[in-house]
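Recap quiz, item 2
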Amino acid sequence: MEAISYDRPSVIALLRKHGIAPTHQRLEIAQVLFGRCHHLSADQVLAKVNESQAETSKATVYNTLNLFRDLGLIREVIVDPKRVLYDPNTEPHHHLYNVDTGEITDIDAGALSVSGLPELPTGMVTEGVDIIVRVRASEASLG
Amino acid sequence: MEAISYDRPSVIALLRKHGIAPTHQRLEIAQVLFGRCHHLSADQVLAKVNESQAETSKATVYNTLNLFRDLGLIREVIVDPKRVLYDPNTEPHHHLYNVDTGEITDIDAGALSVSGLPELPTGMVTEGVDIIVRVRASEASLG
DNA sequence: GAGCAGATTAGACAAAGTCCAAAGATTGAA
DNA sequence: TTCAATCTTTGGACTTTGTCTAATCTGCTC
Ligand SMILES: [Mn+2]
Ligand SMILES: [Mn+2]
Ligand SMILES: [Zn+2]
Ligand SMILES: [Zn+2]
């Protein structure tokens, strides 16, 4: 696994490499995505980008998230029926989902193995295997 | 695994057992859910119930789906970001998801095993492990 | 019958996401 | 530098999924 730097010049180079213009808005959004916080919703990205000052519209956030997703820079996590979450971690990995709080934690795919998956119908190919471990606080752990 | 009959009298008994009244609408919805088609969205259930004649409102379909889900008669499948699907198969099982067509197929949990799941934080308990195999038609199989 | 609890309903509402047409920004050739 | 083509951004309309509410309906029991 190669370490990627996500400072401004690196992100500019990354976008250029994918043939898209490194606009101010895209850089702001990239900075939010590739920063500390993982698994953000579009709304959360919008809020973070515009935190200090309004810099980006809702439409651009959605445009950019879909663009980055198509380029493989981020991936979608489908676990909360209310909204898609965007994940800058594109290494194969899985998720622990706290159904009470909505909190999501990564599970490294390396440690984990699945056996017994059925044969695919001919002509079909696997795009990915997503494992979601749904957890909650146990009865005992609550007062 | 116990075979369950889903004819009208059995469903009536099932609802009574859970302390809810077997109304006409609930029976119609149960009939759609427990019939041949699995993994239906709320909208599809509504359409099927009202196919021959209008019998149920949108609100009642949602009420009933949530009620059945709370009673454990059906479960939600979170795989399509656009809508929740409802699954009358409450046996532990997983899903194959065709990302192009949206088609969903069950994968029996018996044949399948996952190893290497991390320890849960203390006080947390697993509610379920969902595995989604995302597949699509291979390049080769398309013209 | 009256009274009561629970169920159904139309339609208002909210949130996520897409779409569009207008305006703004970049680019690169002349 | 200028100009036009192209790409990008944007407000806001729109769509879809799902929830909520207040009014009505249904089915009991007395
Ligand atoms: Mn900023
Ligand atoms: Mn019918
Ligand atoms: Zn992740
Ligand atoms: Zn299923």
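Residues A 38-39, 87, 89, 93, 95, 106 surround zinc ion (ligand 3) (CB under 6 Å).
Residues 20-21, 23, 25-26, 56-60, 63, 81-82 of chain A lie near DNA strand D (CB under 10 Å from a C1').
End of item.
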